[in-house]
Q: What sequence folds into this?
């Protein structure tokens, strides 16, 4: 009932997950990312602990394939689950349970992993991948959304549309961007709109927040406002 893409942006080192479905609030349970560790998307009859425990296992240095085998072995309901993982090195593994609803499956390429279930067909994943590769010149956030847009044009979730999400992490333990469209007639269009709004101020203001390297961040409001204004002007 969902398809998602996990990817790593080679230019920035960011890890991102974009996901869409005909179900409420997909961003609340499917995407899980830890900076410097990797990303996990747990879907179908979702088991949130695949994301929670899976990231713990990745932090221990386990390979994605080993992580999936461990998660599946401890879950009596694994036949109804789908999960895919990319670690910080770009290593990928995926699992689709035998009871997941057709069409269901997974594909991977250089720096990305795509999985889905209850889809209109295999073309949904193929077109998602094609668009992701073709749009290498786009900023990472827009590239991920463009990929899902292509998958939706190929049929997407065969039941229709309802929610979508985009989660991006960089170096910090807090997200660079966390956008959720929980219930909308055209969730990917709304996700695209929110991403555009984030560029009006948020992505520039974000650079002023505390980091591990600069624990205080920037607190001078005049400096913050001037920096944001200059950044906005430079992108126009």
A:
């Amino acid at each position: 009932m969902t398809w998602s893409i996990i990817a790593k942006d080679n230019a920035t080192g960011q890890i991102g997950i974009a996901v869409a479905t005909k179900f409420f609030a997909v961003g609340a349970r499917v995407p899980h990312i830890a900076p410097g560790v990797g990303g996990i998307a747990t879907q179908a009859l979702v088991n949130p602990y695949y994301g929670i425990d899976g990231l713990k296992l990745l932090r221990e240095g386990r390979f994605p394939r080993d992580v999936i085998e461990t998660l599946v072995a401890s879950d009596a309901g694994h036949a109804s689950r789908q999960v895919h993982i990319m670690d910080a090195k770009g290593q990928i593994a995926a699992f689709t349970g035998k009871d997941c609803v057709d069409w269901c499956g997974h594909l991977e390429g250089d720096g990305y992993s795509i999985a889905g279930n209850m889809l209109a067909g295999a073309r949904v994943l193929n077109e998602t991948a094609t668009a992701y590769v073709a749009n290498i010149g786009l900023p990472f956030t827009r590239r991920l959304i463009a990929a899902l847009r292509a998958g939706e044009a190929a049929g997407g979730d065969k039941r229709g549309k309802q929610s979508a999400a985009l989660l991006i992490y960089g170096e910090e333990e807090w997200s660079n961007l966390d956008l959720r469209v929980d219930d909308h007639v055209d969730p990917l269009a709304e996700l695209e709109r929110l991403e555009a709004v984030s560029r009006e101020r948020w992505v520039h203001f974000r650079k002023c927040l505390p980091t591990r390297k600069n624990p205080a961040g920037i607190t001078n409001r005049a400096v913050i406002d001037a920096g944001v204004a200059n950044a906005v002007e430079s992108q126009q």
